[in-house]
Design a protein that fits this description.
globular, Rossmann fold
Length: about 270
């Protein structure tokens, strides 16, 4: 069993394993980030530090950023020096999608004892690997596999945010729209009281022209908006943490949209 460092409300403090909620960020290039990025994972860690009432851990098999000079996930050059090494853990990869994560998620959840998955996948699949129908099937396989490892796993899934390509490639834009519809149906079909699923809202105000550095990958304001989508979904539906508060209030408007519940069941509150 992998050793998991537990972060309490005081950065870097450690407690025992029992009772900690373990969060794992799962994603593609938007989640791993590149050398010099803060990443939305850092913004989520800040949010948990400020709002989570109880012990928690950020878990996963990887800690690195993508190094653009070598084309490998080998960089430790995070923009934020206060981002603790243990809180940098993730399961994300540049160019990796549902296709790549579905086969490994069960073993990863088992090894790192994840309780909550924060998932941002699909754009790279639709752009390079699979059509919307196959991508949705891979998402279904991912969720099913995660549950074989932890029957009580919780998942918050972000819909695909179409990137700059969608502005000039109508078929690709249509595939993004169709996949998001299929993902919503998958979440609704698979949601259960013992393993609840949430489809987060599209981040309010997210603009690929101002919130990304290249039309796809989030810059600082985009990182805040992505973290807010997850944080507000968990707070509103499950009572976990609190409302997201950006470092600068102007970065994040007051969210007008609520997370899309998979059913009308009452929210499960655990903290």
């Amino acid at each position: 069993m992998a050793q998991v460092s537990i972060v309490t409300s005081q950065a870097g403090a450690m407690i025992g394993h029992d009772g900690a909620m373990r969060f794992m960020c799962v994603g593609d290039s938007m989640t791993i980030g590149r050398a010099g990025d803060f990443t939305w994972r850092y913004r989520m860690w800040q949010h948990l530090e400020a709002s989570f009432d109880g012990p928690y851990a950020i878990v996963g098999p990887r800690t690195e950023l993508y190094a653009t000079d070598t084309g490998t996930p080998a960089s430790t050059a995070y923009a934020a020096e206060d981002f603790p090494p243990d809180a940098r853990r993730h399961l994300a990869g540049w160019g990796e999608g549902w296709l790549h994560m579905a086969p490994v998620i069960a073993d990863t959840v088992t090894e790192h004892r994840a309780d909550v998955l924060l998932v941002s996948l699909g754009l790279i699949d639709l752009g390079f690997y699979t059509d919307s129908d196959q991508t949705a099937l891979n998402a279904h396989a991912f969720l099913t596999a995660a549950r074989t490892a932890n029957p009580h796993i919780r998942c918050v899934l972000l819909p695909v945010i179409p990137n700059i390509r969608a502005e000039s490639d109508a078929p690709f834009a249509a595939e993004c729209t169709r996949f998001n519809e299929l993902l919503a149906k998958t979440v609704a079909d698979l949601d259960t009281p013992t393993s609840p699923l949430l489809l987060a809202s599209h981040p309010p105000g997210y603009d690929i022209h101002t919130d990304t550095y290249d039309g796809t990958h989030p810059g600082p304001s985009g990182e805040h908006r992505l973290a807010a989508a997850y944080a507000d979904a968990m707070h509103q539906a499950w009572g976990l943490g609190g409302p997201y508060r950006a470092e600068d209030d102007f970065l994040i408007p007051s969210p007008s949209a609520s997370p899309v519940r998979a059913s009308a069941r009452p929210a499960v509150r655990t903290g």
